[in-house]
Q: What sequence folds into this?
């Protein structure tokens, strides 16, 4: 059951990821990315991280992708015209990606401890929202405050950047 | 049951697709979307490690809190990045990376 869900959502995720890279129209790219993120959230749920899956849908597939679509429509981006393919760059890019993937597969297959089955969770575990909240406020108090300051400075930065005249 | 290796390969594949998008595409918005995809791939491997590396019988919630922080920072990053793209478009009327070569030597 879990294995079927894993293969279904993993292949869906990679498929929509590929269509982000291959499609020409920016709006279809953004919609594929939404579906890619929703499949990724489903993979989080198969890993018993329900809270992370939900904020993935809310923040990424919701807020971030709406912002992307808003900018695409604000700038009125049309489908990219097919320019002459830069052969050197394409070849180099494909080579880098293939090399990285080959190295990754080799390393993962050389470690037998990664092929152990899924360990069982205790039946009486508290809900993961409760545990994440406890961990967040118990051991990550300062980083939490710093993230708040980061969000504030990002807001101020965006307002300054989008003024008509930059001085 | 899927193993940790399955999840790591899926995460690596998503990362490679994002990397290919950054290297091959020429529209700055699509490059930015591919960057987000690479960031999420890293999140997937973090959550997988948290589920498979149990700490005293529980999932390692430190990893999930880290993913929470990464998603927060990514949201801030997207807002700033898109504001930069909008002001770039206002100044140059293009989002095509090959037309932006002022700093090229």
A:
């Amino acid at each position: 059951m879990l294995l079927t869900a894993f293969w279904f959502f993993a292949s869906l995720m990679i498929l929509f990821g590929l269509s982000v890279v291959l499609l020409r129209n920016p709006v279809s790219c953004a919609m594929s990315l939404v579906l890619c993120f929703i499949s990724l959230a489903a993979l989080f749920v198969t890993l018993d991280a329900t809270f992370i899956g939900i904020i993935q849908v809310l923040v990424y597939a919701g807020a971030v992708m709406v912002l992307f679509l808003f900018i695409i429509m604000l700038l009125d981006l049309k489908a990219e015209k097919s320019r002459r393919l830069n052969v050197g760059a394409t070849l180099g890019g494909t080579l880098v990606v293939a090399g990285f993937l080959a190295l990754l597969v080799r390393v993962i297959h050389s470690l037998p401890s990664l092929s152990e089955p899924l360990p069982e969770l205790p039946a009486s575990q508290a809900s993961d929202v409760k545990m994440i909240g406890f961990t967040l406020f118990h051991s990550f108090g300062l980083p939490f405050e710093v993230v708040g300051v980061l969000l504030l400075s990002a807001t101020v930065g965006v307002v300054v950047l989008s003024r008509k005249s930059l001085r | 049951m899927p193993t940790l290796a399955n999840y790591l390969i899926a995460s690596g594949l998503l990362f490679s697709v994002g990397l290919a998008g950054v290297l091959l595409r020429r529209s700055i918005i699509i490059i930015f979307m591919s960057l987000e995809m690479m960031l999420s791939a890293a999140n997937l491997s973090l959550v997988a490690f948290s589920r498979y590396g149990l700490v005293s019988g529980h999932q390692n919630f430190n990893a999930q809190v880290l993913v929470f922080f990464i998603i927060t920072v990514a949201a801030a990053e997207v807002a700033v990045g898109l504001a930069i793209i909008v002001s770039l478009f206002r100044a140059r009327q293009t989002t095509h990376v090959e037309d932006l070569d002022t700093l090229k030597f």
About this structure: Residues 1-79 of chain A form a domain with the Four Helix Bundle (Hemerythrin (Met), subunit A) fold (CATH 1.20.120.1200). The two ends of chain A are 59 Å apart (CA to CA). Chain A touches chain B through 83 residues (CB under 8 Å).
